[in-house]
Amino acid sequence: MEIDSYNERKAFDETKAGVKGLVDAHITEVPPIFRLPQGTLSNKKPSVSTSAIPIIDFADVDVSREGIVEKVKDAAEKWGFFQVINHGIPLSVLEEIQGGVRRFHEQDLQVKKSYFTRDLSKTFLYNSNFDLFNSSSLCVNWRDTFVCCMAPDPPNPEVIPLACRDAMIEYSKHVMSLGGLLFELLSEALGLHSEMLKSMDCMKGLNMVGHYYPPCPQPDLTFGTSKHSDSSFITILLQDQIGGLQVLHQDSWVDVSPIPGALVINIGDFLQLVTNDKFISVEHRVLANIAGPRISVAGFFSTNMLPNSTVYGPIKELLSEENPPKYKDFTLEEYTKGYFDKGLDGTSHLSKFKM
Known about the structure:
- The chain is built from 9 helices and 14 strands.
- It has helices spanning 3-15, 18-24, 65-78, 91-106, 109-113, 165-189, 196-199, 269-274, 332-342; strands at 55-57, 81-85, 124-127, 144-151, 206-213, 223-228, 234-239, 245-249, 252-255, 263-267, 284-287, 294-301, 311-312, 330-331.
- The strands form 3 sheets. It has an 8-stranded mixed β-sheet with strand order 1-2-10-7-12-5-4-3.
- The protein starts with a helix and ends in a 13-residue tail after the last helix.
- GO terms for molecular function: dioxygenase activity; metal ion binding.
């Protein structure tokens, strides 16, 4: 990273006001640190594609479980992404958590600044771009974020800012419950007993992340979130109606069109590793938008922020002479350290663990 870029990033960081601070200052041009290198801009439009992300209806999951498991299996193998409707989380809860994320990011700056930190050991932290000072990241992303570790040890409510406290606590309970069902369905989709993934502590940890993408004056020059895959077992994402999320499917970018009340589910790197590539963690990104703010709430199932000595590797029951292990064993902590050091540089961290 050149000196100029580092100094600009440092100056931006020291405002503690994030991208929203730039927009509040009525800038009309995207600052240089946010600009994508020339030549990377040409592929921002989604490729012409008739395919759409699978949509799975969970309304009759108890009655037609087998059929739903088959759909989950198909989506996890071919797409790594699917949307779920009739998932059981009330619309009022979804609206309230989106409102909570918005209230946090739009509250008085002095109050918001008190939560600003780059210390990943904090239960609740707010900043802009976790990889701001990584030399490998292509450009700074046009978004601000807060992260709160909600499980395995639910935080003292006082730690969560008042603006989003009740909404976070309520929404997290529902996400844990839906996560439990998803891990059962995914286990069954692998031909294993329904408690298999849970017994491996795949849903032990939950990090709730509230992203705020302010309107961007020159959306073609930057990204809301650069291309990446998730360091999680699975991610449950709630997005608003502005759109901009795209997934890479068969070398084409496909829009994940917002559906009111739906949740986006995607397979993370850890699940691709333990399923030995049976389920895929695909790269995705968020475009910047002249409209906004775009609000999204991601629940990452992973204990990657916590000390955890559990060693993971491909599930033994899935291996055979025809299907030998493709990955070496790893700990979530070891994986995450490399993932964070690398930042969102457009490359997958999975390859580092290939046999």
